[in-house]
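Ligand: calcium ion. Inputs:
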Amino acid sequence: MSFHSLPALAAALLIATLASLAPAQAVSEPRRPNIVMIVADDLGFSDVGMFGGEIRTPNIDALARSGVRCTNFYTGPSCSPSRSMMLAGTDSHVAGLGNMDEWLAPNQRGVPGYEGVLNQQVVSFVNLLRDGGYHTYMAGKWHLGKQPDQIPRARGFERDFSLLDGAASYFDLTGLGASSPRSIFTEDGKYIDRLPDDYYATKTYTDKMIGFIESNREDGKPFFAYVAHQAPHDPYHLPNDWLRKYEGKYDIGWDALRQQRFERMKELGILGADANLAERLWYVPTWSDLAPVARATVGRKMELYAGLVENLDHHVGRLVDYLKRIGEYDNTLFVFFADNGAEGTDLGQMIAGTPGTRDYLFYVVNWSQTHPNAWGRTHSYVSYGPGWAQVSMTPFRQHKGWLAEGGIHCPLVVSGAGVKRAAGSIEDGLMHVMDIAPTLLEVAGVELPATYQDRPVQRMQGKSWAPMLAGQTESTRGEQDWLGWELWGSRAIRQGNWKLLWQPKPMGEASWALYDLAKDPAERHDVAAREPERVQRMLALWDEYAKTNNVILPSRTPFETLEDQLPPRVPVDEGYPPLKFKKPFVPPTPAPEGKAGER
Ligand SMILES: [Ca+2]
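Predicted complex:
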């Protein structure tokens, strides 16, 4: 509210008029909080400072210091399934993202729940917030459908500036591959074919969001602001003055850095004192075995990633500062999280595929800046690979795309209006991205209706965090509550501290494994053989999950040839075969001058 901007007399008259018109109880009712939800795309669990990272993130850290860090928060293993669960409050197999549109298997075509877009069986909670009197704004990546009835405007956003694709250039309209050669954007529900002259994704999304809030702030209605950053999803693109911020910083390599983060996470209380650290992926080399030139080149990728994350934090700070300036900060609830694990697959190369194909040619033409000096700039395509992704996901195993903890265990910060827990506290109860919809509806005081536009509304499977945030309950879920996952044939159930996991080879054993995450967050010890009854009980939960959500296991997956592409899976660090571990031969120092010729 900014009555102070009006002349005092006019303001006094206006207040008097409003008071005489409004019912008495409405005047005394506190205004509902604004909600700012910031999503970082593919950000790792340990990247942010307050989660143990060395990357400078003072603004996200400030939110964490004043609020709650949630250390047992789960998402889906990739972008669009997570985002569908976030908006619908249901499992992704109900909401239309049983599989990503890009990888829909032949046997899933036409099956309800596999539309590849946020389907019409679910209601986006944003529609309900809007109907409930909130302004609803979105800036950033959508990835939930491109048709007019699927875009942000149709799913509840009053104003938007949205990249409809799943990834793209940060500087221009260059798309990722031949099937989306040019990025598609909407602005306020209209498709646009031009970007602002000074466009840089992270900056522009923030500018647009500030503009949306500013445009309506005089009317006193609360707002919901969804900032869906592209950063730090690959390709890593940075403004010129951000390219060198971490130069030389990562010479220590992924093994030492992972250890450093691991220790820091224990100091901060993000991990328990006896937590363990995942084995290095068997196809990632020991850092000390890399030649200096390889270390410099591979290290440069992490430098760019870190710069991209710090830049993201910088723009989070701009939005927070703006809210402070206009006096809305104190009445705003902030939710910050990553949508899935850090990315260890080189998506650019994966799309480019085989020389001569359509995508390969697209890649050669549009992502042509392959020299390290051009990395980070327009038309370069850099992603940091599995070695650094494991650092980002310390202490977990594997990365985005998989159901090991490294694919789905993400950072979450909740702070601001309505959070009554001790500032800077850590909540380790089980939470899930599909809790967001019921939580934000409860915070906004909006009821879930039985029908929406004459259609029955799907039951929300998520649980509201509101009682936990208000300090009324200890955690959102109890020991018996459970969560399920499926993507690309990988399957998992988590109940209490136990996790039952099936992954195809070579990332899994193509059989069910059981982990006690309280003792073994790194999933190093499969205890299924020791706990047959628990396995049976959890298998029954998997059956229930699959049946309830109509899970159709895919006949094909993006990783179906992975076993042929990777070296055989062998135990790491055993020095075998010597070929892989021997130091390069260095010829002996030559004999002193004069003696060499004597034969
Ligand atoms: Ca993502």
